[in-house]
Amino acid sequence: MNTDRTADLVYGAWDGSMTALVSYRYVGCRSVMHDRHRAEGWTTMRSHLRTESSALGATLAISMLDTAGINIDRIYHLGLTQVDIQLYESAVDVGRLHTIGSVLREGRTQVFTECRFEDADQPGRVIGSGSANWAVINATPEGFVYTDPGPGYEEGPEVPAMAAAYELEPLPAGGFVLPRLSARVGLETLHHGPMLVGLEQSALQIVSAITGTDRLLLQSMSVRIPRAGRRGPFTFGAEVLASVGSVIGCRAKMTDGDDNVVAVSLSTYRLAS
Q1: pTM flag (> 0.85)
Q2: What is the C-alpha separation between 141 and 129, in angstroms, rounded?
Q3: Could you tell me which of 75, 36, 56, 61 has the C-alpha nearest to residue 114?
Q4: In whole angstroms, what is the distance from residue 27 CA to residue 59 CA?
Q5: What distance in Å separates the CA atoms of residue 249 and residue 80, rounded to the nearest whole number?
Q6: C-alpha span between 207 and 203 (Å, rounded)
Q7: Could you say which of 54, 118, 157, 191 would form a disulfide bridge with 98 (CB–CB 3.0 to 4.6 Å)?
Q8: In terms of Cα–Cα distance, which of 264, 239, 232, 222 is closest to 167?
Q9: pLDDT tens digits, residue range 14-53?
């Protein structure tokens, strides 16, 4: 395992800011561990966690990562490197998301996890699936306690939109910027939650502009994180790669204050009928 200056801190890079991080608190995913390799979670799918046409990829991903985290965070300090989400239907009628997670393998330098998403009120109705890969940084010191993110924001007009909640600001020419690190997004290193949200919001923005509609159904979202985000401002932008019939392919990119690529996403959308 690699070691760094956070090796002796129970929560690693997030030590001292776990209760302030917005990533899981906004979504309100609640997870339970069954054993070292199995966990499940539930997320109430309020309107700010979806569009009118589709579940949001960031909502699914963050729910999956919370369910994975309750298994693996107590064992390792990890760096998320890749997230893949597949959505098989719009899921707009799903009231509660049930995330059923498992740890596929714990290697010396990597950990592999996956999940399936079901309608909690219709057991067996699989609406999507996901996977996440992690780089092992350190062993977690003794004393780890899972941080319950709480129930999330209640439904209502006062709830901030997802981009604003994650401190993303729209840019005049398109895309978003996250000006700086903070307790809500990560004090020393940017948490993966704002990365997922910024990439997806940038993709939705450009695809809506190109197609002239926001009635978009997410089909897949793949995110790679080759570098830690340690210096802002962090800039998010996207481009449409292809538009074939009702299917649109999009690439989004996040860079740091030194213009290094921190994260990249590939997403596929379909126009709602």
Answers
A1: yes
A2: 31
A3: 61
A4: 7
A5: 24
A6: 6
A7: 118
A8: 232
A9: 666 677 899 999 999 999 999 999 999 999 999 999 999 9
